[in-house]
């Protein structure tokens, strides 16, 4: 079974939509399962004014009846409350066109200029509306569907922040659930109180200076069986699929799994995880590989991190050019966040959940949850007896 999805919608359009195909029938589901994650995405220290307007709520348009999935495509809709202020600006009707509101000063670090050239536009709004991170609300909704599916099978996907603006976590919290639980009550979505206070100071300083900050998020996946993904083709490797998913998040510029880049600096004896027998289980003594070896899950917690650059909209804008005159100009200023790293942790959690759900369905696929549970249980019994 193949899991696939599409999203549509502009930042200031009527709303966002998503269509998800491949989730099995009889998965218990309700809007609250999705809305909880949408609310988490809107939280976080450093968010801008848009989050005070929107109260993201999902509406199921198809694929769910009486609290259970039907096995047919699931269509989701999320209304943009700010649409009422943008109906003329974003109107699909030609007679509403206004020449004097075109965005002609592309922002450095954004999709504006490349998109204008590629799609032969004279107004960067035709690019920035879709390239905006507002789109991630739809992906969080899809990820929440997948997280609900995974949770039914005993798999947890946990996202949190480990760094903002050069301030890194200091607490040595080894338990991933404890990291997550602490981060859920933190305005910076981090598990280290010392770092949290320093992050807040850094965000305040950036706001005062009209600047923005990036950071690093981490996602841990617990309860994965051995053997998701495959070594046989490049596009079936789970590490590659996860890296692509995390890198596809707006403003993300780097991904690492386990030790990541640190593995390149150490000798092999300090990189690879020794294999041991613990009771009736084959385990790794350490988890430097981050739960993935040879493109496949190895039964240890999966740990993936993503690096997010600072948001390119600055209230003290950088220099750009005017698209019409080609003369120097200050970049356009769109309403934006000072720091969206806490929200990005929720988005990263969502895209990881989507890829893990896809891998689970490929290995244990069936048309209904009962069949998938049975397939997974039989495989787990085989692994235990190996």
CATH superfamily: Chorismate synthase AroC
Order of helices and strands: EEHHEEEEHHHEEHHEHEEEEEEEEHH
Helix content: 25-40%
Average pLDDT metric = 94
CATH topology category name: Chorismate synthase, AroC fold
Structural class: alpha+beta
**Major beta sheet, specifics?**
5 strands, antiparallel
Total strands = 17
Q: Which strand-content bin applies to the residues? A: 15-25%
Physical arrangement of strands within the biggest beta sheet: 8-7-9-15-10
CATH hierarchy class name: Alpha Beta
Cα-atom Rg, whole angstroms? 22 Å
From the spread of the alpha carbons, the general shape counts as: globular
Given the structure, what is the number of helices? 10
- Ranges where pLDDT stays below 50 over 5 or more residues in a row are none
Overall description:
By secondary structure, the chain is of the alpha+beta class. The protein has a single domain, classed as Chorismate synthase AroC (Chorismate synthase, AroC fold, 4-Layer Sandwich), CATH 3.60.150. The chain contains ten helices and 17 strands. Helix 1 packs across helix 5 and helix 5 crosses helix 9. The longest helix has 24 residues. The protein is globular and about 70 Å long. The two termini are 26 Å apart. The model has no long low-confidence stretch (mean pLDDT 94).
């Amino acid at each position: 079974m193949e899991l696939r999805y599409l999203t549509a919608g502009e930042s200031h359009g009527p709303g966002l939509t998503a269509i998800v195909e491949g989730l099995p029938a009889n998965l218990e589901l309700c809007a609250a399962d999705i809305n909880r994650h949408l609310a988490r995405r809107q939280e976080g220290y450093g968010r801008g004014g848009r989050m005070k307007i929107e109260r993201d709520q999902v509406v199921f348009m198809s694929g769910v009846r009486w609290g259970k999935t039907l096995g047919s495509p699931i269509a989701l809709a999320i209304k943009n409350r700010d649409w009422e202020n943008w109906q003329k600006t974003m109107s699909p009707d030609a007679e509403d066109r206004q020449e004097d509101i075109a965005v002609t000063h592309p922002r450095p670090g954004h999709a504006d200029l490349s998109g204008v050239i590629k799609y032969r536009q004279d107004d960067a709004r035709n690019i920035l509306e879709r390239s905006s991170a507002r789109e991630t609300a739809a992906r969080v909704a899809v990820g929440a569907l997948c997280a609900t599916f995974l949770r039914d099978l005993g798999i947890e996907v946990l996202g949190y922040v480990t760094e903002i603006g050069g301030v890194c976590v200091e607490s040595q919290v080894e338990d991933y659930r404890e990291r997550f639980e602490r981060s859920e009550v933190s305005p910076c979505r981090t598990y280290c109180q010392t770092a949290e206070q320093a992050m807040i100071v850094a965000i305040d300083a950036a706001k005062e200076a009209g600047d923005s900050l990036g950071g690093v998020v981490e996602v841990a996946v617990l309860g994965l069986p051995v053997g998701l993904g495959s070594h046989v083709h490049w596009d079936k490797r789970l590490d590659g699929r996860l890296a692509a998913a995390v890198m596809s998040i707006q403003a993300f510029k780097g991904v690492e799994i386990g030790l990541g880049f640190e593995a390149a600096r150490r000798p092999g004896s300090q990189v690879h995880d020794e294999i041991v027998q613990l009771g009736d289980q084959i385990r790794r003594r350490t988890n430097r590989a981050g739960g993935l070896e040879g493109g496949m899950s190895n039964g240890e917690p999966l740990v993936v991190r993503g690096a997010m650059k600072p948001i390119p909209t600055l209230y003290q804008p950088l220099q750009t050019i005017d698209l019409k005159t080609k003369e120097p100009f200050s970049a356009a200023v769109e309403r934006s966040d000072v720091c969206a790293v806490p929200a990005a942790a929720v988005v990263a959690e969502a895209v990881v959940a989507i890829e893990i759900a896809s891998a689970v369905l490929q290995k244990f696929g069936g048309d209904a949850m009962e069949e998938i549970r049975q397939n997974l249980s039989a495989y787990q019994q085989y692994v235990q007896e190996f």
